[in-house]
Design goal:
52% of the residues lie in helices and 13% in strands. It is of the alpha/beta class. The longest helix is centred in the last third of the chain and has 15 residues, at 179-193. Residues 7-123 form the Response regulatory domain.
Amino acid sequence: MTQETIRIVIADDHPLVRNGLKTVLHTMPGFQVVAEAENGLQLLKLIDEYKPDVALVDISMPQLNGLEALQQLNAQHPDLKLIMLTMHEEPEYILKSLSSGAQAYLLKNVEPEELQKAIITVAKGGKYYNPTIASIVINNLSKPEPDEEALTPRELEVLRLICRGMSNHQIASELFISIRTVEKHRVNVLRKMQAVNTADLVRKALERGLID
């Protein structure tokens, strides 16, 4: 990262969101949007190509969602600073994002000044949590972890379909539920199984006899 400019990649499947972010960031000195992605797979390629300093990543994206992309980016590009910028305010999404390597978690209704502050903070190597997010993190960290939290029947269905290699779109069609509902189940399954990615999830499901 140069001292003058923070190079940024935006990942969101909605063009209006990407355009709005670019417009806002363009007004802020020291920021340069170098690329934008509409899905997680494209994000991985753009990070390899442009080597940005910071990535703004949504959770709900096709092909590869933000959480899955986050895990791969954190392993492959340890110097990249990752900010989750999403509509999801549920604790499970926040905690999973932070445990997967995000340096900041912001909601899409964030004020431009706070977005600017978060980008500068993580670019300098820090972490940024506003009071609302910090409170959720503290409250959940103070709760004792159960030895092994059981999957609900629906989560077990989702787990088995994930292990069959089905995408979120395919699972949604199979179970007649929304993609966002599938994503929420996927996050819960990963958390309850204490799995870091899909491959780890399949291995643990086999070990526990949850799949054949």
